[in-house]
Amino acid sequence: MTTIRAAKLRDMSDCAAIVNAWIDTTEWMPRVHTEEDVAEYYQDIVFAKYEVFVADDDGAIAGMVALSPDNIVNALYVHRNHRGNGIGKALLDHAKQEATGPIELWTFVENHGAQAFYLREGFSEVRRTDGDNEEHLPDILYRWQRPVGGPHP
Predict the structure, then answer these.
(1) Strands (DSSP E) along 32-94, which ranges?
(2) Which helix (H) or strand (E) holds 104?
(3) pLDDT digits over 42-76, tens only?
(4) N or C: which end of the chain has fewer CB within 10 A?
(5) Cβ neighbours, 10 Å, residue 142
């Protein structure tokens, strides 16, 4: 059974491994940081500064979402063996519940699956860049706002 819970420091290496695996298996995604640098970033920045929630599947980390204090989703990744099972939606719904206002997030233009997912989940496109990021890849800023008077997801 999969549950969404607050991440613990011991989950950090599993979360970094999910991100590293995604980078390595995504053809269009350049590796701009070593696996060790990604793990260090998750330890020093993500787990130190953001609210991180994980999808715990009987002790295995199936996915994670990181929400900044200003309601920016810094990361949303699902382990490849758990994709297509509603884990990304459950993590995003949890972030929506935790957020204190509108949520924003970035995704790459090449990530068509993510774009469809975010649009399906009520996000709207705010703007695009031609690659104003360290990967130098065009990306899109999305925003979700809780409907006025609407319930939490």
Answers:
(1) 51-57, 60-67, 72-78
(2) strand 103-108
(3) 999 999 999 999 999 999 999 999 999 999 999 99
(4) N
(5) 22
CA separation for the pair 21, 64 (Å, rounded):
13
Does pTM top 0.70 for this prediction? yes
Residues 72-119: pLDDT tens digits?
999 999 999 999 999 999 999 999 999 999 999 999 999 999 999 999
Rounded to whole angstroms, the Cα distance separating 1 from 11 reads 18
66 half-sphere exposure, CB direction, 13 A CA radius: 20
Dig out the tokens for 104 from the structure: 């924003």
Tokens matching residue 37: 């640098």
Q: Where are the beta strands (DSSP E) in 16-137?
A: 51-57, 60-67, 72-78, 103-108, 124-129
Locus of tokens 């008077």: 149
- Give the residues across from 72 on adjacent strands: 104
Tokens of 19: 């991100």
